[in-house]
Amino acid sequence: MEDAEIRRLLEVRSEEALRGLSEEYGALAESIAHRIVGDRRDAQECVSDACLAVWNTVPPAVPRSMKAYFCTLARRAAIKRLRYNTAHKREGAVSFPELAFLPDRAGSAGDGARLGALIGRWLSRQPRRGRLLFMKRYYMGESIAELAGFFGISENNVSVRLSRLRDSLRRELEKEGVEI
Asked: The whole model's pTM is what?
């Protein structure tokens, strides 16, 4: 089912839209959520939460890409679930310990928005391969082994490239006055 058809069905409040959404993008969204929470049932719940969020937000929201919107909602649900599951042990709240240098966004919403904008600008200046690598690892949650297979390079090479990307991001944030 095409995005336009899913949007049309959502506008008329047809549950068929959710079936189409799940058929088209459910496996991808579940895969993203599973990489974050590490549990298949929790991942499936995150996809269900994302379906509910789509139902509650479209309309009035009109996403350009239903795939990106749905997967983002599933990812957010997974992060929320991970935080809930690890609330008793604070060190578990970070999905990727190698990004622990990033400031806690729990401060003001403006701080989080500024941090997001800075990271977005930095990412837009990276070569395509670097952007893909960074996003697949830290947004999609893909493992080093998966990335090595996707890019056709060794796991060590992936680790080195990610380390260089993180160092570049750290330098950029420091240059912009973000406390690391």
From this structure: 0.70
